Amino acid sequence: MRTALVTGSAGFIGYHLAARLLAAGWQVVGLDCLSPYYDVTMKERRHAMLAESPGFTPVIGKLEDPGRLMELFARHRPDAVIHLAAQAGVRHSIDAPRDYLEANLIGTFELLEAARAHPPAHLLMASTSSVYGANTEMPFEERQKADTPMSFYAATKKAGEAMGHSYAHLYALPITMFRFFTVYGPWGRPDMALFKFTKAMLADEPIEVYNHGRMSRDFTYIDDLVTGITGLIEAVPGDAPVGSQDSLSPVAPFRVVNIGASQPTPLMDYIAALEEALGQPAQKILKEMQAGDVPATWADTSLLTALTGYRAEVDVRTGVARFVDWYRAYYGA
Questions:
Q1: Fewer beta carbons under 10 A from the terminal one: N or C of the chain?
Q2: Catalytic annotation on 153?
């Protein structure tokens, strides 16, 4: 029976990934610090549901605490490590950049040091579509330069990619970085747009729509994202590239892979799907673009498909309706 270490296991993505791995027969060690960035009760409930499985071992603590990850690696010797824990949020990074320095840079350093001492068969680390920054060539493809971050959050995630590459090269650690594209679904983060829109609309309050709605996102349903991650666990970077589109490094067992729906959706269509699911119109306050934001994202997922056979399956209307069903059940709304 294989063991996976999932950092950020009480988070939105970490919870869903850990649940999928447990269902597939993995032993899962879940590390989370239960940060108060958003509702800690929600994080505790996610962990409690995972703990119903005898294969789950919860660990509460910070990545950046010296020695914590080293001890976990030494004790559990994970076969796969999926590093999801991070300080998230583009806007928050403008107000509290030190949170990102500590969790996203120091925390990632501690993880890489532990992996160097106790190498897993595969280390997978979460990045973000935000690293594409000011790029305008669509769809975003992994071999594009990503040198123009628009937020400190994006800068720390791009730095994490560079750190990972150096460790892959120096210590022959097989590392895959995956870039997420606007993930949504049940148990989602309360600071994300879908959550905030739903809460406001059910309270008959207006929603704030930035850039006057002239935005699009490659909205990715959580189940599709987790399918992409679990498929990549077996796609360990080696010496030979998979086709001409592979981002495999020429000097390290390291690659970058997009995980998205590969289907950009206009923000107004996303809101329309929510209006349909809730059965009521939204009162919209149109505003200017927020600092650190970008007008559009769109993932080229051809590399992920070549590596795993991945195809996104859940369209926006279906995914938004599933989120609304969960929201109503969770909050009794």
A1: N
A2: yes
Is residue 21's pLDDT more than 80?
A: yes
In a domain, 327, yes or no: no
Rg (the chain; Cα; Å): 19
pLDDT range class, residue 202, cuts 50, 70, 90: very high
Give the closest residue to 247 by CA, choosing from 161, 128, 122, 173: 161
In what side-by-side order are the strands of the sheet with 80-83?
56-60, 27-32, 3-7, 80-83, 122-128, 175-180, 254-259
What span, in angstroms and rounded, lies between the C-alpha atoms of 268 and 170?
47
| Residue range(s) defining the domain that contains residue 31 | 3-181+221-260+298-314
pLDDT on residue 291: 83
pLDDT of residue 90: 80
Those residues with Cβ within 8 angstroms of residue 210's Cβ, 6 or more apart along the chain or in another chain: 287, 288, 289, 290, 293
Q: How much is the pTM?
A: 0.96
Mean pLDDT of the chain: 96
5 DSSP β-pair partners: 29, 81
Q: Residue 331: pLDDT above 80? A: yes
- The count of structural domains within the chain is 1
CB neighbour burial string for 57-93, b if at least 16 within 10 angstroms, e if fewer? bbbeebbbeeebbbebbeebebbbbbbbbbbbbbebb
For residue 70, the domain's CATH number is: 3.40.50.720
Q: Which residues pair with 254 in a beta bridge?
A: 175
263-281 in b/e form (b: 16+ CB < 10 A) is bbbebbebbbbbeebbeee
The residues, ordered by sequence, that sit 6+ positions from 302 with a Cβ below 8 Å of its Cβ are 245
Q: Residue 212 falls within a domain, yes or no?
A: no
In a domain, 333, yes or no: no
